[in-house]
Specification:
Distance between the termini: 59 Å
Mean pLDDT: 84
Strand content: 25-35%
Helix content: 10-25%
Radius of gyration: 20 Å
Structural class: alpha+beta
Order of helices and strands: HHEEHEEEEE
Low-confidence stretches: 1-24
């Protein structure tokens, strides 16, 4: 029985494709998971500047949530709050304060075989009427934890 198991293990190890081993992030495994994509409506009183964040620990995440919730209970609309930072990291992008609504931040996350991630940021405005309230668009996702660099690019 032990010999059969060792034989099966040896065959499975030898049959591994070396190309698969060099692929950093198979698309199916590196899908960003949306936490929230919305606008802050606190007239800038949250004190969040235009910025791109990579959050890798619980304390930083909880501090960001507290800051976002300082005017309105923004996190009540998040898909999740409890993040396992040994498995995931957070990527959060905040636009500057806008004088009207309808602005949206879109993220396109691209990976490469050198374990690097590029976050392409696109600012769009919805068609049709927009309100005249002060807004600050943001987009927050979680992605699998990795060892490489994160770079941000504005389109």
């Amino acid at each position: 029985m032990k010999k059969a198991l060792l034989f099966l293990l040896a065959i499975s190890l030898l049959s591994c494709n070396s190309e698969e081993e060099t692929e950093a992030f198979p698309d199916a495994l590196f899908e960003p998971i949306l936490i929230a994509q919305d606008n802050l409506y606190g007239n800038g009183d949250e004190g969040i500047l235009q910025q791109n964040l990579v959050i890798t620990d619980q304390d930083s995440w909880m501090n960001l949530i507290a800051q976002m919730d300082s005017v309105n209970n923004e996190s009540s609309n998040f898909s999740e709050i409890d993040i396992n930072f040994s498995e995931y990291i957070i990527i959060a992008v905040f636009d500057h304060l806008r004088t009207n609504g309808g602005h949206v931040i879109e993220l396109d996350i691209v990976t490469d075989p050198a374990y690097n991630v590029t976050v392409n940021i696109a600012n769009t405005i919805s068609e049709g009427g927009v309100n005249t309230v002060m807004t600050q668009p943001y987009h927050i996702v979680k992605v699998p934890a990795f060892v490489g660099e994160v770079t941000f690019s504005n389109n």
